[in-house]
Amino acid sequence: MTVLFIAKGKMYRIDSGKTSEIQSDVLKSYTEKIYANAKRNEWKTQGKGAVFTEQFEPGGDADTKVNSIRSFASAVACEGTSVIYSQTIDDFSGLFIKKEDSAEGIIYSGTSELIREFDKIDNRIVASIGYSYTNESHIGVIEAGKSDCRMLTEGDSEDRYPVFSRFEENVIYYSSSGLEINDDENKEADEESDHGVNALFTSGIRIKRRRGPAALCKLDVSALKAEELLSDGKYDYIKPSTDEKGNIYFIRKPYEEDGGSTSVLGCLTDILFFPVRLVGGIIGFFNFLSVIFSGKNLRKSRDNAPAKTRKKSDGRIYIEGHAINAAKELKKNSSGSEKYPGIIPSSYELCKLYDGQISVIKKGVIAYAIDKDDVIISNGSALLRISGDGKQTKLSDIGCITFVKIEQES
Fold first, then answer.
1. What are the helix (H) ranges across 172-263?
2. What tens digit of pLDDT does each residue of 240-270 get?
């Protein structure tokens, strides 16, 4: 059995009790090309000579360029000896396959799309496909041997965490949150326009639309029929999974309302900047390919000023966009009988749904995977195996694990 997990955007695997990091060759190649390109041009943009010729570029040195690369993996799975993973690198996002005997390949990518969580069964992959110009995302299926993605959901929603059912054929479970739209008098116009136009920007900076509580949904692919199984204004139902016995698992956590807001000015600004952001996404796509294959960067540094240092708050960290007071929660969880207390609030509950009844399996869980009668969970501080009799075994001390998957040996 192999345990795969993602912590702070990096991929890891546990085989025979040994933990190792899974390196992305695509990220490695991209980083090397960015470094080499910046190193070649340092003589023009760095040092006293560059200051004298007024060509000095703050943050233009190779090390700063590399450190400013934004990269994170969202999900990972195995296919025999190969590894499939979704990763975002700067303005480019894709679904990649890492093979032992050949170079990494791209399974799917898009110029303005954000590939996030995915699940694989047989020759199909179901994924959450987001968009670089809005927090809208939908569920799509990618068939083996095909380069396109068949979208199954649409509308003003954020659809995440899709998984194939392990006890029903052609059924997908996922989480769906509604996104705020314009007022009723503009409703008809909104319905006729591209949903991405509803995203808000101010001076070219994206502002997310507020989202509603995440509902647990079921999608029958054969009938193209979706239904809500669980929804509550007080909770988010996220990260569903199933087993062969007909149990449906998920994490239930308090719903946190986003602070964004809409306005007529915001909508007009959105319409104005939508083409700019779309072109930016296309440029990012070709820039990524140019760096990978030719080593040439098609654009200058994203910022001509050094990155601003963020002030640390009172022990707060962000896990999947949610602010958590790690020190406070660890202290609170340590006061009980927990053998391995974590930093995730006890209000984050791993639950099971069977025959209409919800039961709580474990509190303080941010990610999990089901292994027959056992469950592997992340409490933000460690990765734990909890057996059917309640016995806990620590698998890893790595913190901030947000994705877990178990791969059985074939």
1. 187-192
2. 999 999 999 999 999 987 644 444 444 454 5
For residue 172, which phi and psi values (nearest 5 degrees)?
Answer: -125, 135
Distances, alpha carbon 245 to alpha carbons 40, 119, 221, in Å: 59, 19, 21
Residue for token pair 């809005």: 134
User: Would you state the pLDDT for residue 168?
Assistant: 95
Structure tokens at 201: 């920007």
Q: What is the DSSP letter of 383?
A: E
Neighbours of 396 (CB within 10 A): 18
Q: Which amino acid is at 277?
A: R
Between CA 271 and CA 276 the distance in angstroms is 10
User: Do 6 and 73 form a contact (C-beta atoms < 8 A)?
Assistant: yes
The candidate with the shortest Cα–Cα distance to 178, out of 236, 128, 240, is 236
Going by their DSSP bridges, the two strands 134-143 and 124-131 should be labelled as antiparallel
pLDDT tens digits for 182-235? 554 344 434 443 433 333 333 344 556 889 999 999 999 999 899 999 999 999
| DSSP secondary structure code for residue 184 in this structure | G
Compute CA distances 156 → 26, 73, 134, whole Å.
Answer: 33, 25, 10
How far apart CA 201 and CA 194 sit, in angstroms, is: 16
CA distances from 31 to 62, 87, 283, 288 (A): 10, 14, 18, 11
Which letter, b or e, does each residue of 368-390 get, where b requires 16 or more Cβ atoms within 10 Å of its Cβ? bbbbeeebbbbbbbbbbbbeeee
Does pTM surpass 0.85? no
| Dist CA 175 CA 212 (whole Å) | 11
pLDDT digits (tens, 9 = 90+) for 335-380: 888 899 999 999 999 999 999 999 999 999 999 999 988 999 999 9
Residue 363's CB is within 10 A of a number of other CB atoms, namely 18
Closest C-alpha among 370, 372, 393, 369 to residue 382: 393
